[in-house]
Amino acid sequence: MKQQLIFFDIDGTLLDHDKQLPLSTKQAIRALKEKGHEVAIATGRAPFMFEELRKELEIDTYVSYNGQYVVANNKVLYKNPLSTETLAALTRAAATNDHPLVYMDHEDMKATVENHPYMEESMSTLKIDRYPTHNPKYLEEREIYQSLLFCKNEDEAQYADAFEQFRFVRWHPLSTDVLPAGGSKARGLQAVMDAFDFTAERVYAFGDGLNDIEMLQFVGNSVAMGNAPDDVKKAATHVTKDVQENGILHGLEMVGLLK
User: Fold this and answer.
1) Structural domain boundaries in the chain
2) Which of 64, 16, 76 is nearest to 40 (CA)?
3) 5-79+183-254, what's its fold?
4) What PANTHER family does this protein's entry cite (predicted)?
5) 3-class secondary structure for the chain?
6) How far, in Å, CA of 9 to CA of 236, rounded?
């Protein structure tokens, strides 16, 4: 039986501010697995955005799209797609304000426009080798688990008020995740915990973003990165060092998972 179940966010948690995997983090993940722990990822990213990282760390259980697409031991465990009809309505409303969207399923992502400065600036910060190509009909053909709405923070409220079926979680000054209402990493974690028969007391989670708050509040043992905003730190049981300062290794030692 696996001893503990540990979830790690990616950006700002496993990966540093330059989107690099610190050597100390890679070694710590290997040490956890050698001790018999179950290691998983919990991220807002799409599965195709962290495939190389999964292979490098030999992790085959993950919560992606902030809990909307969950895989355990390389098998799909849980899916919670956005309403196609409501997403189409959001698209029409956003178009009147020149706010593009990106539709994302488990394999790819497509944009409602060919290019846009908001989209270019925010997507570039992810430092991935893929950029959304233009296909406004993509939502009609696939299950969409998450969308990206590109707008400034002050423009977001109008959409949140008009589309209560969706939850908007900002990840960049020019972009916000669009999730099903009630969707969160915590729901994805629960699906994995049920599949592996783990209680909350045997589950740990590390994160640094606003989309990690529910996850950190949900598990029995939570660790916020030193680079996390204050609201995230308040949601966690513990606060470790900055990701640039071997924060993962320090946090694992702090909670007693590694020595």
Assistant:
1) 5-79+183-254, 84-180
2) 64
3) Rossmann fold (3.40.50)
4) PHOSPHATASE YKRA-RELATED, PHOSPHOSERINE PHOSPHATASE
5) CCCCEEEECCECCCECCCCCCCHHHHHHHHHHHHCCCEEEEECCCCHHHCHHHHHHHCCCCEEEHHHCEEEECCEEEEECCCCHHHHHHHHHHHHCCCCCEEEECCCCEEECCCCCHHHHHHHHCCCCCCCCEECCCHHHHCCCCEEEECCCHHHHHHHHHHCCCEEEEEEECCEEEEEECCCCHHHHHHHHHHHHCCCHHHEEEEECCHHHHHHHHHCCEEEECCCCCHHHHHHCCEECCCHHHCHHHHHHHHCCCCC
6) 14
Q: Which one of 3.30.1240.10, 3.10.180.10, 3.30.750.24, 3.40.350.10 gives the CATH number of domain 84-180?
A: 3.30.1240.10
The pTM for the full model equals 0.87
- Residues known to be catalytic: 9
Dump pLDDT digits (tens) for 78-119. Answer: 999 999 999 999 999 999 999 999 999 999 999 999 999 999
